[in-house]
């Protein structure tokens, strides 16, 4: 089975990225054919500095590898190094209704945020994402909940293309984790943890002191009971989810452990659980930061492998669409 997913090289990875997406990658790479992509072309749709993009891309690669993506098992590459992504995106533009793009939740949010200089890339973002996915004849796309709508649109686009030009693409389906598909903000547990709101984030590579500080300061709910109730106690429910995911303990077990204890005890223990679980990742990252040549070589080998799959899909697409 072919798996594809992408992460933007914009800012550090947070525990939402890890629990929503990366943990799925780690399981899938053990048995399936996985392709993971650093989507630098998507990162251009919001204001950015061309001088820092190369460093951010390399950082993203280091973080992926430190989190456990194994280049012996998975293909890891940079989107702009395989030009077929933009070529296919153009062609998919011609089978995608504008109305479908206008109703995307992420577009609605971002177009509000960047009202003053709204670029067409922000609207067409899901088409490039569909091209990423369809180029590799992907069956399953592991993502967090916020990307589900985009994967469903990629499926619709595949179907529209196949209908118009004959069977060409696999129709991909989304994979969400059973728990952790939407990790909430530490400062406002009604919203998701998001790279674009730094105070909301607990970063994967935060140092232990910072992890402790952020967890102790995390916004929680009225009362003092440690109980999983996402409606009445979204803050505590979110922290219980994180606790469970990093410790491997089921939520009822954790509730029991902290019965008759307060939020402070719970948070202290949670910080320790996270610090310990992430220790090997922090170590691996530090080691990789001093091995830039090695990381670049992985990306270059990854691009070679990705290109060979992408080129064979594009050859068929060109034939089917009369571009010969
Ligand atoms: P991004 O950081 O937007 O490039 O997202 C990378 C991956 O992490 C995507 O699969 C997202 O769906 C997932 N993700 C982002 N934020 C969260 C969150 N708060 N909870 C769970 N998954 C998330
Ligand atoms: N849009 C995704 C995000 O912001 C990143 C992404 C780009 C992606 N192309 C993809 C995810 C293809 C899955 C499949 O998180």
Automatic annotation (TrEMBL):
Binding of L-tryptophan, residues: 132
GO cellular component, one term: cytosol
Presence of keyword Cytoplasm: yes
Gene Ontology biological process terms from the UniProt entry: tryptophanyl-tRNA aminoacylation
Motif 'KMSKS' region location, chain numbering: 192-196
Presence of keyword Transmembrane: no
Coiled coil regions in record: none
EC number: 6.1.1.2
Keywords: Aminoacyl-tRNA synthetase, ATP-binding, Cytoplasm, Ligase, Nucleotide-binding, Protein biosynthesis
Motif residue range(s): 'HIGH' region: 9-17
Positions of ATP binding: 8-10, 16-17, 144-146, 183, 192-196
Catalytic activity: tRNA(Trp) + L-tryptophan + ATP = L-tryptophyl-tRNA(Trp) + AMP + diphosphate + H(+)
Domain of life: Bacteria
Pfam families on file: tRNA-synt_1b
One of the record's GO molecular function terms: tryptophan-tRNA ligase activity
Gene3D superfamilies: HUPs, Tyrosyl-Transfer RNA Synthetase
Compartmental location: Cytoplasm
SUBUNIT field: Homodimer.
Known role: Catalyzes the attachment of tryptophan to tRNA(Trp).
Sequence similarity: Belongs to the class-I aminoacyl-tRNA synthetase family.
Annotated protein name in UniProt: Tryptophan--tRNA ligase
Organism of origin: Candidatus Wildermuthbacteria bacterium GWA2_46_15
């Amino acid at each position: 089975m072919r798996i594809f997913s992408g992460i933007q090289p914009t800012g550090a990875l947070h525990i939402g990225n890890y629990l929503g997406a990366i943990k799925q990658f780690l399981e899938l790479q053990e048995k399936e054919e996985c392709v993971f992509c650093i989507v630098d072309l998507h990162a251009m749709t919001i204001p950015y500095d061309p001088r820092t993009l190369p460093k951010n891309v390399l950082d993203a690669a280091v973080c992926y590898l430190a989190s456990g993506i194994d280049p012996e098992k998975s293909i890891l590459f940079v989107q702009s190094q395989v030009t077929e992504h933009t070529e296919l995106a153009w062609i998919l533009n011609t089978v995608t209704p504008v109305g479908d793009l206008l109703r995307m939740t992420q577009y609605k949010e971002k177009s509000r945020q960047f009202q003053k200089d709204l670029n067409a890339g922000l609207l067409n973002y899901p088409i490039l994402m569909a091209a990423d996915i369809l180029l590799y004849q992907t069956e399953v796309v592991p993502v967090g909940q916020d990307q589900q709508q985009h994967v469903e649109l990629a499926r619709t686009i595949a179907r529209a293309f196949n209908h118009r030009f004959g069977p060409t693409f696999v129709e991909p389906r989304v994979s969400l984790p059973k728990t952790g598909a939407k990790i909430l903000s530490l400062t406002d547990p009604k919203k998701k943890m998001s790279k674009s709101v730094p105070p909301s984030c607990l970063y994967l590579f935060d140092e232990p002191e910072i992890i402790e500080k952020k967890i102790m300061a995390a916004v929680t709910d009225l009362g003092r009971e440690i109980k999983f109730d996402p409606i009445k106690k979204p803050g505590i429910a979110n922290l219980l989810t994180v606790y469970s995911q990093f410790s491997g303990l089921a939520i009822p077990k954790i509730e029991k452990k902290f019965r008759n204890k307060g939020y402070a005890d719970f948070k202290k223990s949670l910080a320790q659980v996270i610090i310990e679980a992430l220790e090997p990742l922090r170590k691996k990252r530090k080691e990789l930061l001093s091995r830039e040549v090695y990381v670049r070589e992985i990306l270059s080998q990854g691009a070679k492998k990705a290109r060979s799959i992408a080129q064979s899909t594009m050859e068929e697409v060109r034939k089917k669409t009369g571009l010969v």
